[in-house]
Amino acid sequence: MGNSALLVMDVQREIVDLADDGSGYLPRLRRAIDGARAADIPVIYVVIALRPGRPDVSTRNKALTAVVRAGLHIEGEPGSEIHPDIAPLPDETVVTKRRGSAFSGSDLDLVLRARDIDNLVLTGIATSGVVLHTACHANDRDLGLTVLADACIDLDPEVHTLLTEKLFPQWAEVVAVEEWLKAVAPR
């Protein structure tokens, strides 16, 4: 499994409000976070934040243009904060990104290299957004990948299923939180 880190991506108040389907997503994610901490696996939080006035958003970017129209992901706004149910500890790293992938417009690569991390465990909202984009980037960087399928959620359950059952297994180990916790639990 190499030197692993758990990435908790885009689990911000306004995103949770849009995506949480009442299936127990946040408590399940919390179990993964607590399990990583107990196993001394670093937990790295990734948030999307666009600058006020949006100088970093091109009109050619359909996804971000839609986000801008909805008034979401504005740096410093209360809705862009990490959801309090899974908040980071004071010594945990929070990386800010400006695009879909956790690597895009962020210093994530620097954080991983500084800690000699070569395997990522992906969680977050949305499966078809940050999880997919980050998996593509990580795969291209030859990083080991694990996707916690039930610690990812998407506005479209069919897309979530397609990605976690068909695409991600080509690049990553795809497991449920409980299965992963058994594998990383301190012995």
Automatic annotation (TrEMBL):
Keywords: Hydrolase. Transmembrane segments: none annotated. Residues 4-179 form the Isochorismatase-like domain. GO terms for molecular function: hydrolase activity. InterPro entries: Isochorismatase-like_dom (IPR000868), Isochorismatase-like_hydrls (IPR050272), Isochorismatase-like_sf (IPR036380). CDD domains: cysteine_hydrolases. PANTHER family: ISOCHORISMATASE HYDROLASE, PEROXYUREIDOACRYLATE/UREIDOACRYLATE AMIDOHYDROLASE-RELATED. This is Cysteine hydrolase. It comes from Streptomyces durmitorensis. The lineage of its organism: Bacteria, Bacillati, Actinomycetota, Actinomycetes, Kitasatosporales.
